[in-house]
Amino acid sequence: MSSVARKASISMKDVAALAKVSLGTVSNVVNSPELVSPPTRERVETAIAKLGWVPNASARQLRAGRSSSVGLVVMDIANPFFTDVLLGVEDHVLQRGYSVQVGNSASQPQREDDQLRLFEQQRVRGVLCAPIWGVNQRVDDLRRRGIPVVVVDRAPEESGFCSVSVDDVEGGRLAVDHLIRLGHRSIALVGGPGRLQQIRDRRLGADLARAEHGDVVDLLALSTSSLDTTAGVLAADELAAMPDRERPTAVFAANDLLAIGLLQGFVTHGLRVPEDMALIGYDDISFAAAAAVPLSSVRQPRVDLGRRAAELLFEEIEALDDDRPHEHQSVRFTPTLVVRRSTAGGGQGRRG
After folding, report:
1. How far is residue 84's CA from residue 77's CA, in Å, rounded to a whole number?
2. CA–CA separation, 190 and 180 (whole Å)
3. Phi, psi of 298, deg, nearest 5
4. Does pTM top 0.85 for this prediction?
5. CA-CA distances (angstroms) from residue 11 to 25, 51, 64, 67, 206?
6. What confidence tier does 142 reach under pLDDT thresholds 50, 70, 90?
7. What secondary structure does DSSP assign to 51-89, as a single string?
8. Lowest-pLDDT choice from 85-89, 128-132, 143-147
9. 345 CB contacts (<8 Å, ≥6 apart)?
10. Which residues pair with 164 in a beta bridge?
């Protein structure tokens, strides 16, 4: 029998027998050591070490009706934005002695619902959710069943949740204001689906920037079926196919993955960035600075966003454990503009 198999076959009864104590005493040493006298605790710990016994955390959690993990559901785990959010979540969660279970909804409502149902079955202590369309029935059910939920990357209309988000209206305004100040008078807004609140807010910010400059700018909105590089390449095909006189001279992409795809597509079609087409993205993921033409972008504090969401979740968990009131908070971060080569120089204006 291997050493791993031998350890797996060792039980709490074996520890109790070797230490000459009851099963309850062994359980107290593992779960509430302050209840056991130092000499007895030392005897039990010595037996545990000698036998190589590992307590079954899953069994303890099942008996307690709760786990030592929290759930995180994101829309696209392949997007570095959400990877950075996860890093921020882990920073805080691991400090609290918990683990993070990650679910990827892949922007599919049914898959999001399935992930949330699975977390409930696993008795997670709380859930962090970056919802696709907003707070749905499943999210609301979790809250009503005593599982705290913090909404991530969105400020929900419902007041019964803590949330952490970024001011996407201001982010959209920053991006388009930057392009207008460079002299661009025809700007494409690329990104969708338009039903996403983040996309609507960024486009609203673009409209505000246009209004601030006296409505002298044409904004062309191009929706995409997704927010990845493939969708960006397809959008570049559409823009490149336009007659020179009608084609915008600048593009504001709803995220950096779209912007990277647009850059690839423009190169394929012989359009130079920024000489023929200025380009700015959103999120400022690490790939933005490393692109063939370093991308200007609107930076979101992604790690800070994840960390603050986790902090809010544990504040609510502790309030529930202590049976005291909890006041929900809506935290909103302010984005910043990062200018790189993809928007260098002035606008080209209408082509003659």
Report:
1. 10
2. 16
3. -95, 115
4. no
5. 14, 9, 19, 21, 64
6. confident
7. HT----HHHHHHHHT--SEEEEEES-TTSHHHHHHHHHH
8. 143-147
9. 182, 274, 275, 278
10. 152, 331
